[in-house]
């Protein structure tokens, strides 16, 4: 109790700033509905793995790519099993809470590093806000979410090993990399973080040689051992070195890079793209005007992950997480040098009361943001549900109950939920396993969706009996199907229209 009372007496406005950002992240995650594109197909694979005891290697869910090899399963399998078990235990509510439980700690670690480097809550809050602003567009429920926590843990491990070598941190690194390589294909980021540290220490050796005329390799022993440990750990996966195939496929798949927004370069035409580009500029300016010279690691991380973010919008989240503590470090230097801001402000009696009131309100808002209560909050309708409205729950149920004829041609965004709910009776045409499908299938998908010449003949080639279409993105096909006289509308809601062949 004494510790709690002491903490309350020290509650300053700087702490309140931090709490506002932390509660904001917490509330956003709790009220962020599950988007349909990725989540459901991962759930279906997790269900299959638990039912068969094997990780699938070929596609069994579509009729357009049936039997084609799909190496990506081996990269997600553990997280797919975990997501299915979470859902099977507590449904969508527990799934959202699980998402909060793995994403929020990642940003708390960013905050802790920022404070550890500066001992300034204002600067640490800035670093946290920087990281969160660049990341929130990627906080959807999918296997990648656990990688945010893992990259933050690796950053902490490197920070601790820099301060004091200990085999305990290498053990933790081993566990992290084994988990990472079996949950998501972003694990090479761990090598990049460790590799920059190793390279930095190699430069220290060269400088020592130039200054003293002798070689001493002690600076690279720990980072070198860390790299070896990480490399050995990543072999503990179902395909061993076969993970290279997945990385090569994703890096060179033209469909992924040309049609999926998050794999395209950022632009000011999207919110996420604008935030990343502005964040990149802000950090560049901060590094330039900061009285403290950016470290080698800061510069290398800025260049590497900045270029990654400029190539793929999806890279923005990594830029924010990794550069967040550095943003805090240089904001602290700026505050101290130019604004003469104290790192620790002691609250007055009146300010303390106000801080306690604000903190209490924030705590109440955090509780109200939990999935059980968010329907009572003044949120936009799309945020009040556990899944986004475009998830085709009712339409899929209609297909099953009315036994509509296969095969189904559908909007890509519907494929994931259809795959989860309607298989094996109904297989999908395409879904968000984008790299699975050959270019020819995607060309057919676009030709049919845009009602290009020969669209109906292509549907006949695939023996399509039902159309499950998005009114917004496939309006041309809906109009063409109704005009053709060969299709009859049997169901419609604001997000889906079903037509069957007469």
Most strands sheet: 4 strands, mixed
> What average pLDDT do the residues reach?
89
Percentage of residues in strands = under 5%
What portion of residues is helical? 55-70%
How would you briefly describe this protein structure?
This protein has helices spanning 2-9, 13-31, 36-52, 73-118, 121-135, 144-163, 167-183, 188-212, 221-233, 243-252, 254-259, 271-289, 296-311, 316-339, 349-368, 381-384, 393-401, 412-422, 439-449, 455-461, 475-484, and strands at residues 408-410, 466-469, 487-492, 497-501.
Could you explain the architecture of this structure?
This protein has 502 residues and is mostly helical. Among the domains are: 101-339, no CATH class; 393-501. It is built from 21 helices and four strands. It has helices at residues 2-9, 13-31, 36-52, 73-118, 121-135, 144-163, 167-183, 188-212, 221-233, 243-252, 254-259, 271-289, 296-311, 316-339, 349-368, 381-384, 393-401, 412-422, 439-449, 455-461, 475-484, and strands at residues 408-410, 466-469, 487-492, 497-501. The chain has a four-stranded mixed sheet with strand order 1-2-4-3. The chain starts with a helix and ends with a strand.
Feature tags:
502 residues, 21 helices, single chain, mainly alpha, globular
Summarize the helices and strands and which ones pair or pack:
Layout: H1 2-9, H2 13-31, H3 36-52, H4 73-118, H5 121-135, H6 144-163, H7 167-183, H8 188-212, H9 221-233, H10 243-252, H11 254-259, H12 271-289, H13 296-311, H14 316-339, H15 349-368, H16 381-384, H17 393-401, E1 408-410, H18 412-422, H19 439-449, H20 455-461, E2 466-469, H21 475-484, E3 487-492, E4 497-501
Parallel strand pairs: 1-2
Antiparallel strand pairs: 2-4, 3-4
């Amino acid at each position: 109790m004494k510790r709690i009372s002491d903490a309350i007496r020290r509650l300053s406005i700087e702490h309140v700033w931090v709490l506002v950002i932390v509660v904001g992240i917490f509330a956003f995650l709790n009220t962020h509905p599950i988007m349909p594109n990725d989540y459901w197909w991962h759930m279906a694979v997790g269900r299959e793995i638990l039912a068969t005891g094997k990780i699938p290697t070929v596609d069994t869910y579509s009729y357009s790519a049936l039997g084609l090899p799909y190496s990506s399963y081996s990269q997600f399998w553990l997280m797919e099993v975990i997501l299915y078990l979470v859902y099977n235990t507590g449904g969508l509510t527990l799934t959202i809470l699980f998402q909060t439980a793995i994403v929020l700690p990642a940003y708390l670690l960013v905050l802790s590093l920022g404070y550890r480097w500066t001992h300034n809550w204002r600067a640490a809050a800035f670093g946290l806000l920087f990281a969160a602003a660049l990341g929130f567009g990627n906080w959807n429920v999918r296997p990648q979410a656990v990688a945010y926590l893992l990259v933050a843990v690796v950053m902490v491990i490197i920070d601790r090993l820099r301060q004091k070598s200990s085999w305990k941190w290498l053990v933790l690194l081993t566990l992290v990399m084994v988990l990472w390589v079996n949950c998501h294909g972003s694990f090479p980021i761990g090598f990049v973080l460790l590799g920059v540290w190793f390279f930095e220490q190699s430069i220290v050796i060269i400088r020592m040689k130039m200054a003293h005329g002798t070689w001493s390799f002690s600076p690279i022993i720990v980072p070198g051992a860390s790299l070896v440990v990480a490399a050995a750990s990543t072999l503990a996966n179902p395909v061993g070195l076969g993970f290279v195939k997945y990385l090569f496929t994703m890096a060179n798949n033209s469909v992924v890079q040309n049609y999926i927004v998050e794999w395209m370069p950022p632009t000011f035409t999207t919110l996420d793209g604008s935030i990343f580009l502005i964040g990149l500029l802000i950090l560049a300016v901060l590094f330039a005007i900061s009285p403290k010279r950016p470290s080698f690691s800061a510069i290398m991380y800025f260049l590497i992950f900045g270029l990654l973010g400029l190539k793929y919008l999806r890279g923005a989240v990594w830029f924010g997480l990794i550069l967040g503590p550095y943003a805090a470090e240089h904001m602290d230097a700026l505050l101290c040098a130019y604004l003469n801001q104290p790192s620790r402000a002691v609250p007055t009696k009146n300010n303390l009361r106000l801080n306690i009131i604000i903190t209490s309100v924030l705590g109440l808002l955090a509780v109200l943001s939990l999935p059980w209560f968010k329907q009572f909050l003044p949120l936009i309708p799309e945020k009040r549900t556990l899944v986004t409205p475009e998830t085709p729950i009712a339409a899929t149920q209609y297909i099953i109950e009315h036994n509509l004829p296969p095969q189904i041609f559908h909007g890509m965004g519907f494929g994931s939920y259809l795959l989860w709910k309607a298989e094996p009776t109904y297989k999908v045409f395409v879904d968000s396993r984008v790299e699975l499908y050959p270019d020819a299938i995607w060309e057919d998908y676009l030709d049919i969706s845009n009602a290009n010449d020969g669209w109906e003949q292509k549907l006949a080639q695939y023996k399509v009996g039902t159309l499950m279409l998005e009114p917004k993105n496939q309006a041309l096909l809906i109009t063409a199907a109704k005009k053709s006289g060969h299709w009859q509308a049997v169901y419609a809601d604001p997000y889906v229209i079903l037509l069957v062949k007469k």
